[in-house]
Amino acid sequence: GDSVTQMEGPVTLSEEAFLTINCTYTATGYPSLFWYVQYPGEGLQLLLKATKADDKGSNKGFEATYRKETTSFHLEKGSVQVSDSAVYFCALNSGGYQKVTFGTGTKLQVIP
Amino acid sequence: NAGVMQNPRHLVRRRGQEARLRCSPMKGHSHVYWYRQLPEEGLKFMVYLQKENIIDESGMPKERFSAEFPKEGPSILRIQQVVRGDSAAYFCASSPGVAGADYGYTFGSGTRLTVV
């Protein structure tokens, strides 16, 4: 079955540091890949997505590239802010009506 | 343009009581998904519904849990005879079509159920 593996958190960074959150996946076919962000006490928000190999999703300074050869979709940001502190979920959908499969989430803490 | 509306935001139930969680999808969305998030864990799929139909309930516990999405009104997730292990955040998501390449989910803010 489909699965998503994320790096364990929490990840603690100083403001303006470079961020990488690793994500690898196992799926049948050619899945769409997503990153969601969850701020404290809120639901998940779609951050970015990529639908095919070598696509790069980007939003709010975050980006991730769909790497089929390494089955990865790592999230990166060049300079994090305190307001980026949240839990980040990598997810995939294998197409059709199948449900989206989420990773366990990686908590990011950015300190001033 | 209201997003996905869930209520209540917080729900406290004693063991053995019933919990009813409501979800109104975004306008124009006819697909609803329920997920459960246990403390310090990721989201686990429970059920996928379209209007008046359950499409996939493979993540629902076989007993005490049920879901519906009637022709009129919100989707309801119902938990009968709640136990402490049911304490979690329950999130509803909606999409205009299948959650494939062209869509992501739109999530509600969740209902945090506490069983005492």
Write a brief caption for the model:
The complex is a heterodimer of chains A (112) and B (116). With 112 residues, chain A is an all-beta fold.
Radius of gyration of chain B: 13 Å
The helix/strand class of chain B is mainly beta
Helicity level of chain B, as a percent range? under 10%
Largest inter-chain interface?
A: A-B, 24 and 26 residues
Number of helices of chain A: 0
Biggest beta sheet attributes of chain A = 6 strands, mixed
Number of strands of chain A: 12
Unreliable runs of chain A: none
Terminal Cα span of chain A: 41 Å
The helix/strand series of chain A, from N terminus to C terminus, equals: EEEEEEEEEEEE
- What percentage of residues of chain A falls in helices of 4 or more residues? under 10%
Protein traits:
heterodimer; A: about 110 residues; mainly beta; 6-stranded mixed sheet; 4-stranded antiparallel sheet; 12 strands; globular; B: about 120 residues; 7-stranded mixed sheet
